[in-house]
Design goal:
The chain is mainly beta. It has one domain. It contains 2 helices and 9 strands; from the N terminus they run E-E-H-H-E-E-E-E-E-E-E. A 6-stranded mixed beta sheet has the order 4-5-2-1-7-8. A 3-stranded antiparallel beta sheet has the order 3-6-9, with no helix packed on it. The radius of gyration is 15 Å and the shape is globular. The termini are far apart. 24% of the residues are buried.
Length: 142
């Protein structure tokens, strides 16, 4: 559904796996073949924000000490009737993750109207739900 993002988060001892999947409309504001320089710039903007500026919309105590690994952002199906953004990253930290994770996706894209999330944390902690545009996703690791 346009405007909706699916976010999967898994925390293991010292790493956080984050996977995002959504129709391109929900991030880019359009879902068509990329043709103009402005459209290409929009794609690049959101790719770069995910790969380099993730601390803008993901936060937890000590995140500055964590290193991103296996970070990717892909636009799949561009040029067809429907395209999707699939992004993921693993943040590897030099400490045991016992913090509150905050995902403020409105800071990633103003086109996101709601976010569905699923969470698997240490000691089989699970959580899932839906938040509206102006609500961050808050996940506890203990």
């Amino acid at each position: 559904m346009h405007g909706t993002v699916s976010l999967d988060v898994a925390v293991d001892e010292s790493s956080v796996l984050i996977m995002l999947k959504t129709p391109a409309q929900s991030i880019l504001g359009f879902e068509k073949k990329i043709e103009t320089a402005q459209e290409k710039a929009e794609v690049k903007k959101y790719q770069t924000l995910w790969t380099e500026g993730y601390k803008t919309f993901i936060s937890f105590e000590g995140i500055e000490k964590c290193k991103p690994q296996d970070i990717s952002w892909k636009l799949e199906g561009a040029g067809k009737e429907h395209s999707e953004v699939k992004a993921e990253m693993t943040l590897v930290c030099p400490f045991k993750i016992e913090v509150i994770l905050k995902f403020d996706l409105k800071k990633y894209s103003s086109s996101i109207l709601q976010s569905h999330y699923q969470y698997l944390g240490p000691n089989n902690i699970t959580d899932s739900g839906t938040v509206k545009k102006d609500q961050p996703i808050i996940l506890k690791t203990k």
